[in-house]
Amino acid sequence: MSAALEQEIADVLGRRACSGCGLCTHLDPALRMELDAEGFARPRLVGASRAVPDAAAVFRRSCPGVVVRAPDAAPGAARDPLLGAQVGAWRAWAADAELRHAGSSGGALTALHAWLVASGRAARVTGAAADAAEPRRTVPVTIVSRTDALRAAGSRYAPVAALDSPDVLRPGSAVCAKPCEVSALRQAAADLVPGEPPLLLSFFCAGTPSQRATDELLRQLGVQADEPVTALRYRGLGWPGRFRARAGGREVSADYEESWGSVLGPTTQWRCKVCADGVGEAADVVSADAWEADEHGYPSFADGDGTSALIARTARGRRAVLDAAAAGVLELAPLDMRALAAAQPLQTQRRRFLRARLWGSALAGRRPPRYPGFQLLALTLASPRTGLRVLRGTFRRVRAEQGR
After folding, report:
1. pLDDT recorded at residue 48
2. Maximum Cα interatomic distance, the chain, rounded to a whole number of Å
3. Domain for residue 365, yes or no?
């Protein structure tokens, strides 16, 4: 690895700012993404370095552990300071009942994946799915058919470096990945992707849990570490869907609040706790759960037919959604963005007070990524007392963690 790229990567890792996206594997093919001792995907040099020209410079302007820039809004877009820009927003679900049932919410992204390749709009879609050989793990996959899209349906609450795939740089691709990954790819596309950049699809992301959390959840459900698992899903097969795993001829499961709320969610990596963009502002199209909220604004996780919120950030994304609907692939209905904000309290509250969290981290000696263009200062100063409380809490947590 070039000394400059090595230094840049070491700095991001040392600040615990790596999101595990996998972009750096395209800057030096000798890098591989592997799970570290904490259960997160991190780059490791596995051979003689073959860094591309200007690798360190591309890394500095693209790595989400260094910087995530708010994209310029498309002409005519409306911009919500908490949910980002949009040129179209809908409640959406897959017209295909099987795809809707398999997806984590309404199957809208799964339906788009299948339609993009069937229609020739994309030669392939890079996404993520269970490792066929070891379903406890999650790996990047290439979708070229409806069968592939169905196999990759459903959220994966575990580390996966979606950009650690050669297909994301191939002409004619679409990529569905976490917000940090689509930001990295959009920033690096001019340097790494010949011709038109990929169509970028994403989803609201609450953070990447440790792989160890999946193993712990299985253990709590009676599946031992050495016991072969033949299938594992985190969501889907109904909305919101259950965590399900098959092992030794039996199926174990846990509901969404138990799996995500009690075991998986609390283990999200530090980089995700200081993320300005869990809502995928760099994507062409982003999807989210369109939860129904109770009178206190708390999302209801009662089982039902899945419904996605679908937001087009760019004219290219809007065209894809409307064309898919015209082809009978998606069902669309109006989306109230205020209702979506109320149903996504983790996203809105994190962004509202993120500037205070970033200050607290920096004061405690851990420099966070930079987030130009997200208007974070104005959001936090609107509620200064709460902001101060968040700053102090973050400062104490970082100091305690560093003192271990």
Report:
1. 84
2. 59
3. yes
